[in-house]
Amino acid sequence: MTEDIKKGLLGIVVDETEVSKVMPEINSLTYRGYAAQDLCAKCKFEEVAYLILNGELPSEKQLKNFEKVERKERNLSKILLESIKNFPKKSHPMDVARTAVSIMGLEDKETKDNSPEANLRKVMRIFAKTPVALAAFYRIRKGKKIIKPKSNLSFSENFFYMCFGKVPEKEIVKAFDVSLILYAEHSFNVSTFTARTITSSLSDIHGAITGAIASLKGPLHGGANEEVMHMMNKIKKPENALNWINNALDQKAVVMGFGHRVYKSGDSRVPTMREYFSKVAKVKKDKKFEKIYDIVEKVMIERKNIHPNVDYPTGPTYHLMGFDTDFFTPIFVISRITGWSAHILEQHAANKLIRPLASYIGSSYRKVVPINQR
Ligand code: SDX
């Protein structure tokens, strides 16, 4: 083997992007030059979605227009709605999201049109309809009636309304909005790279997002927020946390919600999400998970020098908000559709087929022996 292989493309720069960057000089993830935490403090999710997709923060008029289109596109087709009703109730909601976007691709009149204008129109449809499809499944699998979206509610408010039948306290909605802002984009992560790879063959946006959802589902990527909750449920109470995490590390376990390919001394999104996790815990009058959180984090840093990633605080935050654990990664999806889409548009604008090489370590040349002589 002579080639210098970088397993997992570790440290390899494969393309350029204008969408986001972790800026070491401000120790922050930035979208189009704006620090994610600054956007959390001053914007609502729709403004950030607009920024990621269009490159600039919207004016009031541009935001109104953007929201109008998103709200208008919230309705699901009869075929999609009927399909969701017939999905196996035990399906993982990530598979529901993947299949729903795939069905949207069957129905969209512009599926084949990869012009930037058509792609932006399709993004708005996928962006608006995916939360509606997920919320419909959320209700159906519990044997409850589907709640239609309401066009006077914001993106976040509407998601709560469609899942639970009501909009919660404003602190809860804000915390959810913040989580969506923090989840919206993160450069060439696994799912985004998947979307760009699919796009590089000049395939369509529904296919690219379908593939990205499949990629996000894995526990080493977006699926980690669900695993964090499973871990916290296993720990059960703060008194067990110290022993649990020490045992896990003694057994060389991978602790979900910790570590990151890019951040080695802490994910810049964590302090903001930690703050909103605390606000939600206060509203819900439940400090148990915060206590477990702090103990596990302290041991991970002390023993391994490994810091939490954004999935660590979002897991228990979504749990306190009342979402089922298997809906945590789908919530990541409804936000990351913006980042994926911006990258898909960028890939189309300066496309080069993504086709790496491999170092062959298989058998040397041999002749085929006919089946009756083998
Ligand atoms: C996301 O890329 C993105 O931007 C992703 C994301 C986004 O916004 O899109 O930020 C979202 O996916 C966050 C990551 C969620 N995944 C997890 O929380 C799963 C647990 N974490 C890991 O398995 C791991 O840290 C990764 C997958 C996130 C990163 O993997 P790397 O860069 O390939 O590093 P590695 O697994 O090779 O770890 C290096 C060392 C190893 O030890 P040694 O073999 O060198 O002795 O660190 C150890 C690992 O064992 N390590 C951990 C650990 N993470 C790393 N040990 C215990 N628990 C962990 N979580």
**What share of residues is helical?**
55-70%
How would you write the strand order of the largest sheet? 1-2-3
Total strands: the figure is: 3
**Number of DSSP helical runs:** 16
The CATH homologous superfamily of the largest domain is termed Citrate Synthase, domain 1
From the coordinates shown, what is the CATH architecture of the largest domain? Orthogonal Bundle
The kinds of small molecule bound in this structure are: s-citryldethia Coenzyme A
- Class by SSE composition: mainly alpha
Topology order in helix (H) and strand (E) letters: EEEHHHHHHHHHHHHHHHH
What distance separates the N and C termini?
Answer: 31 Å
Explain this structure to me?
The protein is mostly helical and 374 residues long. It has two domains: 17-220 and 330-349, Citrate Synthase, domain 1; 224-321, Cytochrome P450-Terp, domain 2 (Cytochrome p450-Terp, domain 2, Orthogonal Bundle), CATH 1.10.230. 58% of the residues lie in helices and 3% in strands. The protein is built from 16 helices and three strands. It has helices at 36-42, 45-54, 60-72, 78-86, 93-107, 116-140, 155-164, 170-183, 190-200, 205-217, 224-235, 238-250, 270-284, 288-304, 311-321, 328-349, and strands at 20-23, 28-31, 34-35. A three-stranded antiparallel sheet has the order 1-2-3. A hairpin with a 4-residue loop joins strand 1 (20-23) and strand 2 (28-31). Helix 4 (78-86) runs antiparallel to helix 5, helix 8 (170-183) packs antiparallel against helix 13 and helix 8 runs antiparallel to helix 15 (311-321). The longest helix is centred in the middle third of the chain and has 25 residues, at 116-140. The protein is globular. The two termini are 31 Å apart. S-citryldethia Coenzyme A binds at residues 8, 186, 189, 220-222, 224, 254-261, 304, 306, 309-311.
